[in-house]
Amino acid sequence: MGDRIRQLGSSPFVSLPQLIGHSLFLFAFLAIFALFASVAVGQTVKEPKPTTVEKDKSDDPARVKWHIFLDSLSQETRTIFPEERRPYAVADIANAYWPIDREESRSLYLSALDEAWKFTQQDKKYRPMLNYVLGSASEIDIDLGKLLTKRLLAKSNSDEKGDGVATDTALDLLDQDPQKAAQLAKAFAPSGLRDRSALWFIFQLGKIDLQLANDVYAVYLEKATADGSLPVESVLPLTGFAFGYPEYISMNDRGEAPGMVGFRGMPDLAANPLFAQIILDDLYKRITKAIAERNNAIGSDVTGRNYVIVFALEYLVPEVPRFEPGSVLAWQQLQQQAMVGVSVEQAQTVRGRVMDYRASRVRAQSYTD
Asked: What's the whole-model pTM score?
């Protein structure tokens, strides 16, 4: 299956004067450093002769001088007040270190990440701080971004807390560098399916580069279908892109139907029969398993599972003739099994939500046309 898929294959910027406040020197220094770096670090070097051994620049007086200055600035960030400004400042200093000392830059980025994580645990309003640190690191080096993202995922104690970390960072990178954003998203697939941030990212990427979005989707589809732990409601949102609909929808066990219909800016989005067949085959198996688990459940758990199962089938069964006409009967039989024990009221509620989504799709399409 993997081979088949592969074939198709805010935080606002906070300036240093704002961060340091009392330290105009730091701002002025970094401006000077930026000019110096273009000469002392990024200067063009003539092509050496084949027999010439390039000199080690670790003892370059200019580099040593600027390293000392950055060391002092790094120490100064420890006294910044209020404390919530420190991660921004440390990340900016880490950026300045990158051309001359990557190990120190990595160390500072990890420190900034740990500090930002601490604030985020205290209050979700500090989440842009995390995004700033991760986005800055990923922008200068994608592997550095991956390193920090892995560390952050390790800190998350549950799928709900850590699921969208990578895709949130990828979204922050999207405008500056779509390629790096796509690389980061693919590296951590299927992260972002449980909270649907991955689908938001794919559709936003599709407005910029539909083929690149197609590539990211292919990786997500491959990873998702290989992960048996993902529930039906997490995989179902992948169907819209495969069916050629600019939408992702689902329903949870509380009867809530989060989703998005009518993404604009992708006039060339079309159904992909191979993607559609793969996702339909996968969901058939997941729904079959979910029905069996529902049949062994008791109490309110049964009602919750019914919401997920009935919604998925109401949404999927009408699409089966388009992509798997030979499986129509099997899907209809599965739907009959799913309706056993479902109350009329619950069934009507679910069907009403699916009809609302379809009506929204038609309106969005009419607007596009």
From this structure: 0.74
